[in-house]
Design brief:
The complex is a heterodimer of chains A (about 800) and B (about 260). With about 800 residues, chain A is an alpha+beta fold. Chain A contains 23 helices and 20 strands. Classes of the chains: A alpha+beta (about 800), B alpha/beta (about 260).
Amino acid sequence: MANPRWTKVGRDLAAHKVRTLLVVLSIAVGIFAAAVMLGGRAILIRSLDTAFPASNPSSITFYTSPFDEHVVRAIQRDPDVLAAEGRHRVDLSFRVDGTGDWKSVTLVAVKDFRAITIDKLDQTPGTRWPRRGEVLMERSAADFAGVKVGDVVDLETSGKRHPKLRVIGFVHDLNAVVPMMTGSVIGFVNADELPNLQEDPHFNQLEVIASPRLTTEADLSRLGKRLRDHVLADRGVIVGRTNLHTPGVHYIADIFKAISLLLSSIGLLTLFLSGFLVVNTVSSLVTQQTRQIGVMKAVGARPRQLVVMYFAMVVAYGLAALALAIPLGQLGSNAFVEFGAGKINFLVTDFTTPDPILAMELGVGLLVPLLAASVPVIAGMRMPVREALYSQGINTAEFGEGRLDRLLGRIRGLSRPIALALRNTFIRKGRLALTLTTLTLAAAVFMSVASVRSAIRLTVDRIGLHRTYDVWVDLAKERPSGELERQALQVRGITGAETWNTVSGLRIRPDRTESQNIELYGVPWDTAYFRPELMSGRWLRAGDKDAIVVDSGFVKDEPDVGVGSVVEIKANGVDKWWTVVGIVRGDFLNPFVYADRSQLDKALNTHGGTNMVVARTAAHTASYQKGAAKRVADHYTDKGLAVSNNSSQQELKQTITDSLNIIVVFLVIMAGLLVVVGGIGLSGTMSINVMESTREIGVMRAIGASNASIYQVFITEGLVVGVISWALGAVLAVPMSMLLTSALGQAMRFPLTWGFSFEGVAAWLGFVIVISVWASLLPAYRAARVSVAEAIAYE
Amino acid sequence: MSLFSRRPPATPSAEAGASGNGGPLIHLRGVDKVYENGAIRFRALKEIHLEMGRGEFVGLVGKSGSGKTTLVNMVTGIDRPTAGEVIVDGTPVHMLSENDMAIWRGKALGVVFQFFQLLPTLTVAENVMLPMDFCNVYAPRERYARAVELLQQVDLADQADKLPATLSGGQQQRAAIARALANDPPIIVADEPTGNLDSRTAEQVFDLFEDLVARGKTILMVTHDNDLVRRVKRALLVADGEIVDEIVNRPHTWAE
């Protein structure tokens, strides 16, 4: 026959099913949330760490004038170059099956797909490389543009021709920037397709992998400069843009770092939360068992034996929680990883939970409950036998001594059940403190997550505020300013226009290394189309000589630059020194520098020519703006002016919003998980409170309380706790959301404007009210159904 | 009408308190118990002197709040004296640590409560086996047989595998007595064991106690039942924390 001690442990677990379920769920929910967040994070990191080096990422990308294989071989001969490949890249518009909106596509033409060694592509099983008339789409196109295998896409070339390509399948390019961030999908075609696309058959994009000896960005910058100024320039190849890729760092690293920071911090907070829940439930369990502990001591149980018994019970809870949480956590993290990986275009093949995460889950499942239980269990064991034996189960806590108690006692005009509920809430102050800590934390984290979402929205909205034009059109060549403005105003729906000059440049640092590409804008100093938000210094003035204003994106990349700095900028082959007079808030994508248009014109010798038109439209909806931009572009094309790009404010905003939405999506998932954790926590705590009050319920019923009065008492108690935790949570959420927003901004290297989410505060209030009522109603209903005698005898 | 005639406070009778091996089995010397709750100080026991010999059946009587339960709690070690000494079978109970106390209590004493206090999730037999298990007395495979044997003695062998909730009050109390006997302790301490039973059942329980005394057990019992008081070998009247009266083998004296 089994040892009665262990029989008791087993039967207690089985006999108190609701309590067992609550404790198991309290533990499991923490493990589950941590498994989803920390496990998902670990799987994504592992996947990127394996797939990224395996893709042989390029170190430098040059966008150039046409070149051929000889140039590629010359680059390959450079001692600091490990590999080099040429490709042809063309940006076009496309639509599927001759219907729908025109969308942007970047087609990359490759001579021999099998020979690709840089930025390798993963073929989806069953697909082959494209022949003439065919295109292989990057797999993110499926979600972003709704492209399917077998679709025929119409393309629009610069010559207004409409060649068609059939989609033969999908390929994964880990190094391709996701369409969410660029607004453009990517497709791969055979180089034989280029004449059909009215494109030069030569290469215009050079991918280079630097020797592993070059480990820093500065090394790469020097190599890029040497290849551009010597190897390429010597062969007549002009470089329009150079992109340096920090060795070992994927392009999405900043956003990934931010997501990772969110996942780990919220994951750990959730674990902390779960720990509180466990302390709460286990201490309630020990309280309920006090008299039995007294009896066992009276018949010879030693404290250590009892501690072992109750720890065994907690371990059993932990094991049950693990049995529930590990498979569910695996499923959750799989779904989460699949979803998240899709958003950032990772191809995850190995979904197994990494060993350290599994070890963490086991540790949390067993150690956290044991640690949480140790305080109430040891305190329970230390309770003198007499106290334990004569514990009535009814509240023996003192009420009436504290200042708060006296204050509550002084509140008049409340009905007796409401007064009882209010005072009951504060009678078990230790328990109340634990419950409030748990719920306040859940509330604060939820509201902070909602606030980060607000901060992202606010930041995006503010970007729109600075630009008071609706559309812009980039021209392939500079044209006289007056002509462009006149032509633009002839287009239907255009109410105002201004010409700017834009050129890609580089900063030459004092150590002669070069920065990443910067966008240099020549704008009239008194422009009415741009109202930047000054962070320091001032905006451009009339008569400013060699003055520039840089944006926060520039300062982020070039931290030595401040107001008053004199910086050397190279653009159009001209080096010039400029003085920084102000810093304005940037808009995420690239570093921007602004100079007075006439000053830039003088510096670059463009002789009054401008290459960008910004215009205001009669209406401001996304579709109107898009149509107007296209009408201006078409008008210029008809007038023989080559247009290289047209876009609208709403499109830009959408692109930035979509990029940041990657983080928002993760935030929403986390908020959802918190709702689950908070919900289970709140219902668990409320249920325990009601269960502990079963004896009071018996007493109240014995003196004539109706079921309705009993519900009233417990629902009010639940609501009081819920609302207090909500209010405290809202207060705590202010500094917490500030910290989280600032940490996120730092991780992304893009400052976010903090904004408190009152929507989040309201949402949690609604949630807390529903849960408080629900969680109190069920156990109160159950308790109200037991007979007075049973309720009084309840242990 | 008082059940007791006024007599001077009891002094421990050397004859009654003599234990079989020459000294008293239970010896309380100058035991004081004071409870303090904030500003309120309550002296529950006042300099109690008590000796009990082996095989004695002693009843403690008195009104509610007189200190009877506090006094038996001193003997069982459930509570500790504020001053004085409690020596049970040569063991200074008041000096034992919680851990040692538990081991000692499990082996030396059987405790019977008014509300039975059987663990609700264990069967009757398992409740009886629990003290053997805690104190590691008897080999594990013998424990069930012993539990059934003890239950047989209290006429409950057929209920061994039932849960306490299915038993009547009298049956539960008899099961609690069987549990008190689990480790074959020389002393049984019972706090109002019949207080929650009807008179017929109380009679059965008392018969059981008498039988145990006949078999050499020493019993200290708190009771309110006047009829039962008359049947104990020695009765002590407790009032205001003091033993104010004592009667030995003359059950009718107080009622007269």
